[in-house]
Specification:
The protein is an alpha+beta fold. It contains 2 helices and 5 strands; from the N terminus they run βββααββ. The chain has one domain (4-78). Strands 1, 2, 3, 4 and 5 form a 5-stranded mixed beta sheet that branches.
Length: 89
């Protein structure tokens, strides 16, 4: 069975969340409620959609040439991208 995570959205060619051109994955759900959160629309733990690792990688590889040419990569953002239990297998 594929691992599934609840994803809010993707940004395909981000340039402010790390070096080079980035593929940014915004995870859905966060219980921290930081006062100055930039992504409050990701707080709802029931929002977004479930995505498998294979589905996520299919999106990422589409932009690999841009990331490789610019020294970029993938950024995990949130919502709570580090919250245990959000990703399951």
């Amino acid at each position: 069975m594929s691992t599934i995570g609840r994803i809010h959205s993707f940004e395909s060619c981000g340039t402010v969340d790390g070096p080079g051109i980035r593929f940014i994955t915004f995870f859905q759900g966060c219980l921290m409620r930081c006062l100055y959160c930039h992504n409050r629309d990701t707080w709802d733990t029931h929002g977004g959609k479930e995505v498998t690792v294979e589905e996520l990688m299919k999106e990422v590889v589409t932009y690999r040439h841009f990331m490789n040419a610019s020294g970029g990569g993938v950024t995990a953002s949130g919502g709570g991208s580090d919250s245990a239990g959000r990703i399951r297998s």
